[in-house]
Amino acid sequence: ISKMALEGNFPGGKETVFGLAEDGVGIAPTTENVSQEALDLVEEFKQKILDGEIEVPKTDDEYAAFEASL
């Protein structure tokens, strides 16, 4: 958003969503305190979400249904 603003293209009045595909969420770049096993699992599940194999709940009701299915 800040780059867009600097270039005179601030998307004022629009909802901008940054998810996994846009690198808006994820593990911090500093990973020295995270095991390789954990990093590999994060990457595995990230790819499953991006591929549509796992659908992330978007509402409290969807999360409750997801949690009940475990």
- Given helix and strand content, the structural type is mainly alpha
Task: Describe the global form.
Answer: flat
**Share in helix:** 40-55%
Low-confidence stretches: none
- Taken in chain order, the helices and strands follow as HHH
What is Rg?
Answer: 16 Å
In whole angstroms, the N-to-C terminal distance is: 37 Å
How would you state the average pLDDT, rounded?
91
Describe the model.
By secondary structure, the chain is mainly alpha-helical. The chain contains three helices and no strands. It is flat and about 45 Å long.
Task: Give a quick precis of the structure.
The protein has 70 residues and is mainly α.
List the helices and strands and how they pair.
Layout: H1 2-6, H2 36-50, H3 60-69
What descriptors fit this protein?
70 residues, mainly alpha, 3 helices, 43% helix
